[in-house]
Write a structure and sequence with these properties.
By secondary structure, the protein is mainly beta. It is built from 2 helices and 43 strands. A hairpin with a 3-residue loop joins strand 41 and strand 42. Helix 1 packs antiparallel against helix 2 (about 260-280).
């Protein structure tokens, strides 16, 4: 198989070349754990691409094929987002040209320059929400639902619209809908004599992208469908980068289920499946992205020259990065493919990072390969401009990531926080865990380690990470919550400059207006048993200390795992998180006031249950600010509340599909 190494594409001015090394590590050299060197290589033509994909799949195929397609469900990572968006508000439509937008909150995103899909979006003049399988358009000035629009769903797929997310740019909304087959494949009971007959594969998950025009009554102006699993997306201006993954579309015969011949049949079935893989066409691996419907539909695939693989292995999954300019409509998504897995996406408007776990950790190892250490591969793309992403560099770090907040680009370096698990020795306690913060720098087409801080939370796992400028805040937990403050001003010599141990843990960290850190998570007793919701305010100006806390026994918040659900309004300190408590049933929005020295409860906002059925549709999921009004959202409807007093202003029930 022929391959060519990518040349670096980013300039040295914007991404300084940094030499590899561990001299900046706070751990001794004999403790250093090196991840395998990483880079992407591209294939030299379609023949080399097909040969490489066939070989990798043939090495991993078994009697039942390549396995049931990966789990599909709600949007993949549950990664959070934080910091109120500071980007420019999209331009007004002609009808709103004379109407200025009131001050409003945006989606709580990780980086201000990269918007993230969510259930609710606003530009201050309109609110667009997804609920009950419909796009709900609200006029915040009149506090009325102005329009609704049905979304794609059904057709043998289960509750597709309940997992949809959206992006908003001017008068265009892009709805991203993962579709899950209702009938799962069992693949275990072929009819008598049918073992050798190829059978249809299991129903495949799909990703459906729907472009909606909001300049008047909302209408669908474009659609794109693919047999892929949605991973995540980021948008800068009107340009969205959508990341999906797929598995080969190959049908395999079922092996015999007769226990008397099962072992021999399994060997024969494996070899037969290898032959099937060796004859499969290239389109079995390259997903098609179909724009439009019927006779006008057109399908796009990644060109062979835009597909690559990690230098050390070829995966059986295909990771695809799509580029869509909402202002131009849906057309060729200019897909870029990587024969590897992808799980976590981080972007800041100029760079897009996709991370994944090598195949030896998620499936069968390559034939003859020794077990590989636990590590995460990182691929970096330059996404400046509206064109196809340009590959820049790849790297690898030991351990696994919590979510996208464990990644941060700063000063030309990538900071990565991971937790590694050491295999247990026979007769010993459970596997040992330890967390490390790595600093990676560009070295040609590689992201090499230039510094690290090891030994964080031994025996514990990372529960939250937040990078703010040249400082990192890392929370680990098992029985108590060590909050580590890490100085990254010298990326080659990062150091822990403070540590605070308290009961419980913070699952999400957010900077406040006066430079403190607000943590939302779980309270716990001395044994580590969680007892309810905990909000903590930390002064991190010197040695970290907790200056205030608020507890709600027996409660939990979705903000623990979904930072989109978190709202912080800097001008007043109003903080809103959804909470659920067994004794009250449906969830509510808890409103707190956070000052420089305290956290106090303002009140709670509750919603009516849909049709009074008590089915959980009234559980609050999101909140945002428009002017002086706090808006909260559930599947049942939206409520407008006075942000200062929490006095009710309006209840807007959402229409059913």
């Amino acid at each position: 198989m022929r391959a060519r190494i990518y040349a670096p594409l980013a300039s040295a001015a914007t991404l300084p070349l940094l030499l590899a090394g561990c001299s900046g590590s706070s751990a001794s050299d004999d403790e250093a754990v090196a991840a395998p060197p990483m880079r992407l290589v591209s294939y030299d033509g379609c023949d080399a691409l097909l040969d490489g994909l066939r070989q990798a799949a043939a090495e991993r195929v078994g009697p039942f094929g390549l396995g049931v397609p990966e789990p599909y469900g709600p949007f993949a990572t549950g990664d959070g987002e934080t910091a109120i968006t500071k980007g420019a508000v999209p331009g007004p439509s002609p009808a709103d040209a004379g109407r200025s937008a009131p001050q409003h909150s945006g989606t709580n995103v990780h980086e201000a320059g990269a918007d993230e899909p969510d259930l609710v979006k606003t530009d201050g003049r309109r609110i667009v929400a997804l609920a009950r399988g419909r796009l709900q358009v609200i006029d915040p000035a009149t506090r009325k639902v102005a329009h609704t629009l049905g979304l794609p769903g059904g057709d043998g797929y289960r509750a597709a619209s309940t997992n949809a997310r959206l992006l908003l740019s001017g008068d265009r909304a892009l709805v991203l809908t993962p579709r899950t087959p209702m009938v799962m494949y069992d693949g275990l009971r072929p009819s008598a004599g049918a073992e050798d007959a190829p059978r249809p594969g299991p129903p495949r998950p799909q990703t459906v992208l729907t472009l909606v025009d909001l300049s008047g009554a909302p209408k669908v102006i474009g659609s794109m469908t693919s047999d892929t699993v949605y991973v995540d997306a980021r948008m800068t201006g009107s340009v969205a980068r959508v990341v999906v993954r797929s598995t080969p579309r190959i049908d395999f015969p079922a092996p015999s289920r007769d226990p008397r011949t099962q072992q021999d049949s399994g060997r024969k079935a494996t070899e037969r499946n290898r032959e099937i893989v060796r004859k499969a066409p290239l389109d079995a691996w390259l997903p098609g992205f179909t724009v439009g419907e019927g006779s006008a539909a057109k399908t796009y695939r990644a060109p062979c020259g835009q597909v690559s693989r990690p230098a050390s292995y070829t995966g059986t999954s295909m990771l695809s990065v799509l580029t869509l300019d909402l202002s131009r409509g849906l057309g060729d998504p200019s897909p870029v493919g990587i024969a590897a897995d992808g799980e976590t996406v981080y972007g800041n408007g100029s760079s897009l990072y996709v991370t994944g776990t090598p195949p030896s950790l998620v499936g069968l190892p390559r034939k003859g390969a020794a077990p590989r250490s636990q590590h995460t591969d990182v691929h970096m793309f330059d996404v400046r401009g509206a064109g196809r992403p340009r590959y820049v560099a790849s790297g690898s770090v030991p351990g696994t990531l919590l979510n996208q907040y464990a990644l941060s680009e700063h000063g030309g370096n990538l900071r990565v926080a991971t937790t590694a698990t050491a295999p247990p020795k026979p007769g010993t306690q459970p596997p040992a865990t330890e967390s490390t913060l790595y600093v990676l720098g560009r070295n040609g087409p590689r992201l090499d380690q230039v510094g690290r801080v090891a030994g964080l939370g031994k025996g514990e796992r990372i529960h939250s990470v937040r990078f703010i400028g040249a400082t990192a805040y890392v929370v680990t937990f098992r029985q108590v919550d060590p909050l580590y403050v890490i100085d990254l001003n010298d990326p080659r010599h990062p150091r822990v400059k403070g540590e605070l141990k308290i009961n419980g843990y913070s699952a999400y960290l957010h900077p406040t207006a006066d430079g403190k850190i607000l943590g939302i998570g779980r309270d716990a007793d001395a044994s580590g048993r969680t007892t309810g919701l905990l909000a903590s305010l930390f002064d991190v100006g010197g040695e970290p200390r907790r200056v205030a806390s608020y507890r709600l026994p027996g409660a939990a918040s979705a903000s623990d795992f979904e930072p989109h659900a978190f709202l912080y309004w800097p001008s007043t300190g109003l903080t809103v998180v959804p909470v659920s408590r067994p004794e009250t049933g449906a969830g509510e929005a808890l409103a707190l006031k956070v000052t420089g020295s305290g956290i106090t409860k303002v009140g709670a906002v509750r919603h009516e249950e849909g049709n009074g059925e008590g089915n959980g549709e009234g559980s609050v999921q999101r909140s945002l600010m428009v002017g002086g009004t706090l808006w909260t959202f559930s599947d049942a409807g939206a409520r407008a509340t006075d942000a200062a007093t929490l006095a009710d202003r309006a209840w807007l029930p959402f229409a059913q599909r």
